[in-house]
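Hi everyone,

Forwarding the result from last night's run.
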Amino acid sequence: MKRLVNALILLTSLGCRADPGMVYGFNNIEPSANLTWTPCFDDFTCSRLEVPLDYSNRSLGTTSIAFLKLAGKNATVESPSIVLIPGGPGGSGIDLLSTYRAIVGQVFGEQYNFVSFDPRGVNNSGPSLDCFSGNTEARTAFNRLHRTGITNTSSTSLEEQYYSSSIYGERCNDAVEHESPHGYYVTTPAVAHDLLTFIEAEAEVAGQLPSDAKLWCYGISYGTVTGTTFASLFPDRVGRMILDGVMNAEQYYDNDWRDNVDQMDEAMEKFSSLCHSAGPEKCSFWGPTPANITARMDNIIYQLQNHPVPLSGVQSPNLPTLVTYSDLKALFINTIYNPLASFPGMADILHQIECGNASALAGLFDGTDFTSDAGLVIRCVDSYRRNKLTTIEEFKSYVEYSVSKSKYIGDIWPIFVETILCRSFRPQLPDSIVVQDPISGLDRPTSFPILFTSNTIDPLTALKSARNMSSKFPGSVLLLQEAAGQYIPFIDSPII
């Protein structure tokens, strides 16, 4: 969205006149219970779909969901829309579709329309919640208290992180009570129902029966939780559903993200073999064997664990800082989001550190601080009735498990994913927008089989999660790609 806004600013500064019927912001679109599309951002159409806060109690009022549509080159109004379901939670589908606008037609086929949306509580969709009520000083103070580094960086860090976590939930509870009474109405089951509302409204626009509408979608990462939740709630409304980079939805709703660490080290170990194969011209951290590369990387880990590097800032305009073990671990977790693309950059930084220059790591851990509450609020309200991470004993067990599964990422994962922040949330939500039963299609098979997809090495949404979720939906298929990475975003031929 920032890219689109910047483009508009540039056009204005050059004296270009925009189409007077074109809008460049969702605030300029009136919400409607009917699906009304408005030309927007030059190549798209936009809509703000008005939906009930609670589908079982419409007297509570409504909120609006922002949708963005890109027409395929050969698509018509009657053509199916493929809905891109963003990851996160907290990811913006508006940003997702605008970023990949040039390739979605190549991936899925130009005979479709492509739609994405900001789920409840995210960016352009309501209801919104700011747990710190715009007080950036309070948010910074909390991050300073809570985000002390990796969970085992000191003898007291785990306890500090556990006990300080209650502050966050208390702030959010207070903000809901005094400023955003429906700020917690952002659960994934509610989003699934919003998607049902969307496909029915779209069918009506096309002159089709709303009751026959089916969801055609491609969900990634957390978007697969939205997809499996939809399939569990509305199995007879599943059209063509592809879920890629699959999360274990049951663990997600339990606030127990254990499967996620299962293949992290497998992905990191690929670095050594690929760096060696690439040769010294293409990998700056090259070594004569993969084992040599791994040993040197492990040596850097050991050195920073025991010897933080002070940077005085004398020879630069930067402030004095201390490069820590947590900064190195932040490099690792940032890299595994897209390992094959990010490995060369990691190699350059490791090479610099080995040569005595650790400045590229400065501030990396602080850069993982969260600045938006949307993603945390969604996962916390989703799990509050089933939360398996509330006591300090449960937190210690979770940290120990993560560390035992991954020597590279395990000790930063708990503070990175921040599931402990959910322990003091106290949402009062109706049963209708909270998960009541296991996520499964075992009772009623989906109207069309779900296609689950995964890389053979998935460092953040492990292959075992895809196998687990596929087993819960009879007739579903699991497609594997021999690769390392979180999901399969680019496929050469249409897949729906």
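The two ends are 27 Å apart (CA to CA).

Cheers,
N.
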